[in-house]
Design brief:
Elements: E1 15-18, H1 23-38, E2 43-48, H2 53-68, E3 76-81, H3 83-98, H4 101-106
Parallel strand pairs: 1-2, 2-3
Length: about 120
Amino acid sequence: EAEAAGEIVIPRRPVLVPCVSNFSHFLDLCRKTLRCLELGIPVVVLSRSHTAQYPFRWAQLLADELAAERVDPTLFTFVSASLPNQQRLIRAATRAAASEPAAAAEGTPTPFLFTD
């Protein structure tokens, strides 16, 4: 409602959420992913290729739930990749965000949501 009234602006650039393997960070991953999806912000969950089993199962379950709720499937992506390939993706996302005309008005692009 606030966005429709022009009170706030929500950028719709994809958010990169790194996935880690301990439980408290996993809860943080879930919270950040769901918050973004609720706002219609595309989410890319990054998982290391050697720790992908449990995050992938979670991503599969979430994708099934999103489909059941008729949420646009393009809003959620799971990437299992080596660290160098994740870094390439991060650099590409940063360059793409910086090239958007709205990026100048919004300031420095921050396509990441890191865990605390």
